[in-house]
Amino acid sequence: MRRVVVVVYSGVQALDIAGPIEVFDTLNRLLAEPGTGYRIECVSAHAPMVCTSSGMVIQAEPLDAGEGPIDTLLVPGGSGLKEALADRALISWIGQAAARSRRVASVCGGAFLLAEAGLLDGRRATTHWAYCEEMARRYPQVTVDPGPIFVWDGRYVTSAGVSTGIDMALALVEADHGAVIALEIARYLVLFFKRHGGQPQFSAILDAQLADRAPVRAAQEWVLSGLERRLPVSELAQRANMSPRNFARVFLREVGTTPGQYVTRMRIARARELLETTDLPVGHVARRCGFPNAETFCRSFGRAVGPTPGEYRQRFQAISPSGLMVEPDRAERSAV
Fold it and tell me: What CA–CA distances, in Å, run from 20 to 66, 166, 322?
């Protein structure tokens, strides 16, 4: 069996641990052949009982129990991270354990512990989006990428905030046992779909909530309610009861981008969702998102995202728990 050693400490985030562990344990229950899954061990300097940030108590073995070869070393984050970073014995143990591990993974703030041990120097890594700036400042030798939900660099895998540890664990299982069993675990855990590491930590659609002034928020909501329409600045300004010039100035101050750039950004965000969750032809996706034709859509998508819509779909297309693609609505099906 593959040995998974989880480092826990006082104030650790419970879901950072429970999410990946449930993925590994679900594989143990689904595999027909016993002894071919994962053996999970929790170790801590605070053994035998460790209190998480939510008050949940985890039973752990002393750090010495984590000696010997390790398949996967897992380091979670949590509100106790500051104290853990100051624990030089713990940081030293993580560095030594990493040298005995086939691969090393972190969830959320656990990447700080890996970086503190010098394990991420010269590597690309991620953590919770709210802490990426601090991590980049504190560890300049690490290339911190705030975008993806997890980053795989060599034998080091770092995931973003909290629940992304589940996505990372599914990727580890896929690497060990194949995509079919990883997808079966995702279904068993009732996940809507299995996300790939390159997907963003949060949808750009959430940006619609950022404006403080109600008139600007109203214009943003109107954009999102009808991305298939033409959305000239003059009409957005009318929704906000402002002159176009004043609206453009206020919008830029409130949202950080021009109205035109915002509309394009929302169109691309919606297109990504449709490419991930439907089998609509690219031309239909373009029309649903307000692009005049597929050619214009492909150019805009390539500039914003990198790959073409077809390449993006091939890499990130999502599967529903039933194993079927999420279907387009009846009107779109009849038009195909």
Answer: 18, 5, 22
Q: Could you read off the pLDDT tens digit of each residue along the chain, which spans 336 residues?
A: 899 999 999 999 999 999 999 999 999 999 867 778 999 999 999 989 999 999 999 999 999 999 999 999 999 999 999 999 999 999 999 999 999 999 999 999 999 999 999 999 999 999 998 899 999 999 999 999 988 889 999 999 999 987 899 999 999 999 999 888 888 898 888 875 556 655 555 555 655 556 778 888 888 888 988 899 999 999 999 989 999 999 999 999 888 889 999 999 899 988 988 887 788 999 999 999 999 999 999 999 988 888 899 988 887 665 433 333 333 333 333 332
How far apart are alpha carbons 100 and 290 in whole angstroms? 53
Please tell me the CATH code under which domain 204-316 is placed: 1.10.10.60
C-alpha distances in Å from residue 197, one per residue of 14, 57, 87, 147: 22, 30, 31, 10
Every domain of the chain with CATH number 3.40.50.880 lies at 2-188
pTM value is 0.67
Whether residue 107 contacts residue 76, with contact meaning beta carbons closer than 8 Å, is answered with yes
In the chain, list all ranges with CATH 1.10.10.60.
Answer: 204-316
Name the class of domain 2-188. Answer: alpha beta
